[in-house]
Amino acid sequence: MDKKLEKIVQALQENFGTSYEEFRDEAHVFVKAENIVEALTLLRDKFEFELLSALTATDYYPQETPRFHVVYQLTSLARNLSVQLRVAVNSDQPKVPSAAFVYDTANWREREVFDMFGIVFDGHPDPRRILTPEGMEDHPLRKDFPLGYEEPQFTFNYDDVDLKKIYAKE
Amino acid sequence: MGVEQKLGDMGIVTTKLEELVNWSRTNAMWPMLFGLACCAIEMMAAQASHYDMSRFGMELMRASPRQSDLMIVAGRVSRKMAPVVRRLYDQMPEPKWAIAMGDCASCGGVFNNYAILQGVDEVIPVDVYVAGCPPRPEALIHGIVTLYEKVKGDKFKDLAVVK
């Protein structure tokens, strides 16, 4: 790991009691959900991480509990560094405090994470869906979401599918 | 010059009204811009000088549904886009036609999932399906000529609008 990055990871450990994993010279710092806003503010103000380059989530459904990781990828253009923060969350209505007031970019990205994974961001200024149509209730990128497979039409089952399919008239 | 010489400068042509109307419809059928994905690039190529759809009366693509007769749905239709497609189709004046261009618009293509409509015929009635992923401009023009054949066979009694 980069020596400049070590200091930052240490500072996070002292302030918030975080753990970290190292992967290909990069640090993945695990932060508790209640500390995430403070941790992001610290990195932005003290360590010049002025860019939130990605905010996303991953679902490790059958293998791991807690199943979701919310991932914050931060970049410092001034110091040429990048660090990743992760918040592990579980349960049917996972909740994470919103980072939209720390980084403006987080606004739409949190909406996308809510849309795709159903992770609720507490205190978000505009907590609507962003990609899927209005009225949709599922969260498609969850691992337990059905793929929505429809039966393909071939010559042997042409009539069956044709009868079931709803065609628009006029 | 031209047709007058052949006809002997009579200034008169006799035909059936039905054929005249269908002829005029097929020779000035303006399509609406409806590129949704990569098929739109082939549609642009078909419109541009190399293939030149204006040879078939498609002088220009209209950006407004009120001025167009034909909707070429070029690309996959997502479930979020479906109500928009339907609304634009409803805004087109009668008579109107629709071509589903490419596999995705015809039957969903490779996208068999929650986000993509399995064929645009679920929301609007389609006259001609053009296969291909994406279809070449020749294929699209063939689809258009096929549509012209269909329109030329239209009868007034079948077109009567029943409200």
Structural class of chain A: alpha/beta
CATH level-two architecture of chain B: 3-Layer(aba) Sandwich
- Strand order in the largest sheet of chain A: 1-2-5-4-3
The CATH homologous superfamily of chain A = NADH:ubiquinone oxidoreductase Nqo5 subunit
Order of helices and strands of chain B: HHEHEHEHEHH
Contiguous helical run count of chain B: 7
What's the level 1 CATH class of chain B? Alpha Beta
**First-residue to last-residue Cα separation of chain A:** 64 Å
Number of structural domains of chain A: 1
- Structural class based on helices, strands and sheet pairing of chain B: alpha/beta
Number of domains of chain B: 1
Report the mean per-residue pLDDT of chain B as an integer.
Answer: 86
Order of helices and strands of chain A: HEEHEEEEHEH
Residues in helices of chain B, as a percent range = 25-40%
Q: Could you say what the CATH architecture of chain A is?
A: 2-Layer Sandwich
Using only C-alpha atoms, the radius of gyration of chain B works out to: 17 Å
**Portion of residues in helices of chain A?**
25-40%
Highest-level CATH class of chain A: Alpha Beta
- Rg result of chain A: 21 Å
Largest sheet of chain A: 5 strands, mixed
Total count of strands of chain B: 4
